[in-house]
Give the backbone structure.
Amino acid sequence: MGFTTGFPLLKISGLTLTSTALYISLLAHQRNRVRQAHLLHQQSLLLNSIVDPSIVPVEDAPRFVVQRAGWAETWKDRWNADVEGAVRWVQGVRWGEVREAVEGRALAWREGEPRA
């Protein structure tokens, strides 16, 4: 594989990188302009309502739609609750006592004592 084999790919990757940077910068510029237009509209309504009290700026009330959680979300919640319970159990165990109990059983097993 020589130098000329990979050369067209370098042009394509450079074009992709350049076009991506251009797209992101144009998108950010457009969003900034839309935000500024919205702010200017709000400010003009506010100033006009000071001069003419009959003009009342209308606030766009957010529209919330209450949706029931789907079966996937329900199972995720159950899974998370089980994981939280397991973590609480692990955090509540006194590991020093567990180690001492295991060492005692291992010592007894090594010495040939029957299980208790």
